[in-house]
Write a structure and sequence with these properties.
The protein is an alpha+beta fold. The chain is built from four helices and seven strands. Helices cover 25% and strands 23% of the residues.
Length: 230
């Protein structure tokens, strides 16, 4: 079909509108230009006010205007450089009070930083994995096997195996796994033990007879010997 015939279809009167829309368009066309301009300005003001109200409601719900925090884009282990972080706007209630917004570049992580987590001062604490540890606990390295599926953030019971027919002894119950360190030859779990449990555990380690058993998180009774005591 020739192009001029296609263009000719654009000629002619406006298409018929439904009766309510047709009446509304006629009324709009009959208004004075300044009245139409005032109505358009009023509609724009109402739209801006509605958006502003929604923003304020969201800020009130989440504690205020968004703040900038450094968020990990991948999982970073203890000892890694805090690289690959993304500056992200987050609600204030989602950002810890100790969040870090700037790093010098020569720090290393004292705690693991999972993907999506916010970098805090505790992650850069020079005390290492003991940074978030209860004062009554100590980080004790215990050799483990990969097949035991021990992972950081889990909980374990610590057993010292007896010699010969001697029974095994439960040294500690529901203790936190602070970190896992491994190389090509071995794997070691850092376990948070109460200071009174360290002696028995190290005695077992000297004989190579310490076993970690998966355990539930400690109860909420606040007992240091049965949990973190926090």
């Amino acid at each position: 079909m020739p192009a001029w015939r296609s263009l000719s279809r654009l000629d002619g009167p406006l298409p018929a509108l439904p009766r309510p829309l047709d009446a509304l368009s006629e009324r709009w066309a009959s208004l004075r230009p300044r009245v139409r301009l005032a109505l358009i300005a009023l509609a724009a003001i109402c739209a801006v006010a509605a958006v502003t109200a929604r923003v304020r409601a969201a800020e009130s719900r989440w504690g205020g205007a968004p703040v900038t925090a450094l968020v990990a884009t991948e999982h970073l282990a203890v000892g890694d450089q805090p690289k690959g972080l993304r500056a992200t706007l987050l609600p204030p209630q989602a950002v810890p009070s100790t969040a870090v917004t700037r790093i010098s570049g020569d720090e290393s992580l004292a705690l693991a930083l999972p993907e999506g987590a916010v970098l805090t001062q505790a992650h850069l604490d020079p005390r290492g994995p003991a940074a978030g540890l209860d004062p009554s606990l100590r980080a004790v390295p215990v050799p483990v096997h990969e097949g035991w599926a021990i992972s950081a953030g889990g909980w374990v019971d610590v057993w010292v195996l007896g010699a010969g027919e001697a029974p095994a002894a439960l040294v500690a119950r529901s203790r936190p796994i602070l970190d896992i360190r491994s190389d090509a030859a071995s794997m070691t779990a850092l376990v948070g033990l109460h200071i009174d449990e360290v002696s028995a555990a190290t005695a077992g380690l000297a004989l190579g007879k310490v076993l970690l058993a998966h355990a539930p998180a400690p109860g909420g009774d606040g007992s240091v010997r049965d949990g973190l005591g926090q």
